[in-house]
Input
Amino acid sequence: MTTSHMDGGPEAMPGHLPVAGPHQVRRAAWALIRRDARTFTAMIVFNALAAAAGLVGPWLLGRIVNTVKDGGSVEAVDRLALGILVAALAQLLLARHARHLGHRFGERTLARIREQFVDRALALPASVVERAGAGDLTARGTSDVATAGQTLRDTGPDVFVAAVQALFILGAVFLLDPLLGACGVLGLIGIWFATRWYLRRARAAYLAQGEAHSALAEVLAATASGARTIEAFGLRERRIADSEKEIERCVVSRERTLFLRSVLFPSIDISYVVPVVAVLLVGGTLHGHGAVSLGTVIASALYLRQLSQPLDTILQRVEELQSSGASFARVEGLAVEPTEPSGPAAPPASAARAPEDDRIDVCGVHFAYGDGAEVLRGVDLSVRPGERLAVVGPSGAGKTTLSRLLAGVDAPAKGAVTVGGVPVIDLSPERLRRQVVLVTQEHHVFLGTLRDNLVIAAESATDDELLAALKAVGAEWAAELPGGLDSELGSGAHRLTGAQAQQLALARVVLADPHTLILDEATALLDPTTARHTERALAAVLRGRTVIAIAHRLQTAHDADRVAVMEDGRVTELGTHEDLVTSGGSYAALWHSWHGEHLPAPRSRAHT
Output
């Protein structure tokens, strides 16, 4: 999905999560400001008052110079000095309250950004997340969200304060003497050129830096999670080379942003001196001709010298704003409707009709991963509501790929996968999760209590229902935990074994109670006896629901209503266990081989 940068549309690379365009970022920022408009407005008002109080000191100092020059009394000078002290104290109190308001606004807004990000991440299609990689999503949800929050809490208020102060200071110089004010503004032209040069290059540089960090996070996460596999297959050197490549990419992107700053900041430092020198030179000439007072020249020079502080804050924060703007664009990118590379984009939830029933139909389906060879080649299959179907076949036959299409994780390149007459890929994530649940051998245990890990599947479930779900999948170990359902799980607490984590995931399935359950080797980590007990318990609990099991143990196929045999991306046999064993085909050969029997070579024909 690509859209021209000039129109403010989303930006994305193939296989990457989208990045929001400038227009979308500005619209999202204003939406967040409007949600807390009262605090934001109060922050601006107090910042303006603090800036106005800061103007009093230089003006009174100019008055003191003129008073001393004209031979004024000590009492008059003391009164003016007391006024400077009062103004400084007022500025301190007003600025402190403005800062407090800014932090309140920033923290509340950061909380809203985090909540939006979690909601959007959970609503993403699983295929989109898989193609983008966990590293990109993790980087956006951690460092990018934190950077955006820091901007709203610190950088944003600082820039507003500095901008108001700068405008007030320039206004004060023009009120003292318009000609001196014009000299000061002309002396700031160098800052305008340097900043313009920087801004034209910074956004692209920081987006590239964020993308490089996401890619590195993905490589490191994949290397850490697959450490045993890497060692087993001797892939250590290759993974090190991949990591070094991504590290080098991060270094290059970081050097680019450092170069931009190394040009901007020295240019700014030189430009600060120019307006002060110009005012002193022009003001000295005018004072020599009696056109302005000495106090006016000194006050103007002090104002312009004072101008360096807010301008310095703004220009230093410009770098942070570019970095945080790129981070916010990546965070807001999740609000952009993703386009599926393997099929058309799913329509909005309101556009997809509800399935008429739970019947699943696979019609002429072809599928390939990327530009590779086809994994599925014209698969046709119908699963009746309430049926228990086992899918068997050799490794690489396409069983797991078929399960992903049935669950809506991927979209077919050709053909259709429908549930109740509605394409699965057209269902909204919420409706799809109620309709079809895919359970694999990869399970996640969330930090929190056992209860927390269960209620994510059914928020309103009672303790009795949670315990019943655990019992249904044979998780007797849960009753032995010292805290029961309140036992903490994860790092630093009770660690579950792989088999226990698998049973926990299956208990979630029982609680979710989907219309269709797809088990892709979901009991692979259990011993054969426990696995068979768990599968039969699940079948009893989910009686009347459709269960499709990718069977790695033929006993699962024996207990199913029908068995589908897959070979080379096609369904070659389909029928009951007894019929397929009698027919003498591929399934019969597998069954007898599993029992240690010898049969003649299977007849090459499809049984339907």
Remarks:
- Residues 32 and 112 are 8 Å apart (CA to CA).
